[in-house]
């Protein structure tokens, strides 16, 4: 029986019925009230993204089988290459680096630094990058790859499975092997040959993503970091009305940039800011966007706020990448600039706050008050539990408000028992009643630590429901 973890599992009708019973019972009883809080979609919040590619996962496209060896018994999984569709155009190929977690249908992923994923605390992350660069699909001469690995012959499915198995041995430190002997030979070769490589450059980021100052000043710089030859610079949508310009350090308006280019917000004395984001008559805010078409570097991590398992890039077509930066200004008082980044080494969210005003900026976060003196900047670290959804809003003078939402997903699941593996085979609540066909190439299961509780409660509902039916039937018999 195939267990659905990082790979894909075809559910049976009975499995789907059991999942539907579980979800229905839990909703009716309100057992999970407050557990697994839904994460905002970012339309009125600020996900912790550093720019780059954003993509939706399509499914597991090229794969073979693998076996996880553990105390609870051997479990078969499907292992190989996923495919993603990039927003704005482009296709990505990825392997997963969280073996026991599941892939959520149509989950949206964002290019993410290793520090914001489980790779940040994995001393073997560099070896995973070596495997990606020295195996399929980067090496598409399968005959040559097979010779180097002593694997005889390799199909695309063998190559994908063997590569994924080698990655899991480092990302999850799992006892896992490929079912096909040729794929297993490749996995052994890759594992033994892997060398430590550094994290690849992001496809596109802006640093810092937020600046602040006074109207009449030039705010910045915001530095472009990219592997693209050229990026397009778009001014704020309301630039014609507000008069805000994006310039270089000499004051020349910039419409394109390169790696290392420094951008500035030139704010007029009477700038009002974007009406949809205006602070008040004394302040405003504006946003610039940079965009490019490039191949995303192999080894970049991709994370999702839907708890869908982390992916690592194996190949990229020419793809659309983008990043944004925000400027805030005010005539007097505190003038904050706020951004955030997940830090898996700390198990926390780091919030970066700069105050370019003439008065201290004080705000409250999780019951604690923080004060940033005028003309200084600080990092406020917010400790979080693994898989904890967060939703913070920082407010300030002149109507300033900045919201951050997301989920801290920094650890792989680790070993599981045979029983929990069986539970993982049921579809996730998000898939119940959906229109996706049961044979779609995506894992259909949830992977949170609350899964055994859900199953136990569901079984309780089934038992109680059966007892009630028996009692009613006996009562009818007595009445007749």
Describe this entry's structure for a reader:
This protein is an alpha+beta fold. It has helices at about 15-30, 125-135, 140-150, 155-170, 180-195, 240, 420-425, 450-480; strands at about 45, 55-70, 75-85, 90-95, 110, 175-180, 205, 210-215, 220-225, 230-235, 245, 255, 260-265, 285-295, 300-305, 310-315, 320-330, 335-345, 350-355, 360-365, 370, 375-385, 390-395, 400-405. The strands form six sheets. A six-stranded antiparallel beta barrel has the order 2-3-4-16-15-5. It has a five-stranded mixed β-sheet with strand order 8-17-14-10-12, with no helix packed on it. The longest helix is centred in the C-terminal third of the chain and has 29 residues, at about 450-480. The protein is elongated, with a radius of gyration of 26 Å. Residues about 10-50, about 275-280 and about 415-480 have low confidence and may be disordered.
Question: In percent, how helical is the residue content?
Answer: 10-25%
**Which secondary-structure class do the elements indicate?**
alpha+beta
- Please describe the biggest sheet, giving its number of strands, its sense, and whether it closes into a barrel: 6 strands, antiparallel, barrel
Mean pLDDT: 79
For the largest sheet, list the strands in their spatial order: 2-3-4-16-15-5
β-strand percent reads: 25-35%
Q: What is the rounded Rg?
A: 26 Å
* Backbone shape: elongated
């Amino acid at each position: 029986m195939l267990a659905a973890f990082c790979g894909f599992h075809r559910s049976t009708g009975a499995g789907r019925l059991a999942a539907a019973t579980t979800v229905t019972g839990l909703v009716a009883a309100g057992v999970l009230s407050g557990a697994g809080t839904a994460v905002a979609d970012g339309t009125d919040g600020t996900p912790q993204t550093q720019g780059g590619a954003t993509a939706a996962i399509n499914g597991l496209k090229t794969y073979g089988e693998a076996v996880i060896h553990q105390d609870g018994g051997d479990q078969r999984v499907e292992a190989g290459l996923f495919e993603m569709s990039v927003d704005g155009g482009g296709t990505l190929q990825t392997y997963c680096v969280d073996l026991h977690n599941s892939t959520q249908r149509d989950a949206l992923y964002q290019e993410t630094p290793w520090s914001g994923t489980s790779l940040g605390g994995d001393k073997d992350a560099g070896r995973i990058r070596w495997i990606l660069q020295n195996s399929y699909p980067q090496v598409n001469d399968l005959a040559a790859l097979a010779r180097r690995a002593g694997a005889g012959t390799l199909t695309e499915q063998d190559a994908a499975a063997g590569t994924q198995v080698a990655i899991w041995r480092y990302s999850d430190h799992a006892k896992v092997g490929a079912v096909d002997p040729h794929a297993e030979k490749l996995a052994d070769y890759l594992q033994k040959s892997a060398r430590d490589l550094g994290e690849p450059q992001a496809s596109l980021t802006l640093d810092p993503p937020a600046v602040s100052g006074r109207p009449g000043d030039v705010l910045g710089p915001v530095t472009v970091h990219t592997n693209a030859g050229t990026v397009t610079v778009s001014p704020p949508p309301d630039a014609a009305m507000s008069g805000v310009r994006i310039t270089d350090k000499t004051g020349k308006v910039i419409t394109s940039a390169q790696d290392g280019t420094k951008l500035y917000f030139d704010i007029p004395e009477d700038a009002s800011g974007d009406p949809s984001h205006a602070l008040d008559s004394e302040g405003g805010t504006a946003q610039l966007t940079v965009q490019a078409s490039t191949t995303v570097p192999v080894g970049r991590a991709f994370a999702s706020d839907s708890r869908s398992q982390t992916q690592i890039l194996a190949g990229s077509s020419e793809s659309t990448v983008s990043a944004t930066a925000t400027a805030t200004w005010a005539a007097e008082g505190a003038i904050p600039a706020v951004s955030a980044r997940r830090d898996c080494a700390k198990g926390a969210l780091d919030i970066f706050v700069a105050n370019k005003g003439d008065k201290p900026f004080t705000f409250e976060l999780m019951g604690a008050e923080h004060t940033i003196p005028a003309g200084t900047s600080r990092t406020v670290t917010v400790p979080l539990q693994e898989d904890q959804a967060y939703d913070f809003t920082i407010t300030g003078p002149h109507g300033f408000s900045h919201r951050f939402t997301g989920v801290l997903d920094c650890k792989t699941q680790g070993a599981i028992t045979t029983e929990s593996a069986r539970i993982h085979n049921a579809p996730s609540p998000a898939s119940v009643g959906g229109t996706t066909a049961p044979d779609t190439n995506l894992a259909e299961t949830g992977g949170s630590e609350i899964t055994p509780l859900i199953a136990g409660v569901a079984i309780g509902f089934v038992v109680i429901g059966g007892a009630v039916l028996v009692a009613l039937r006996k009562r009818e018999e007595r009445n007749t």
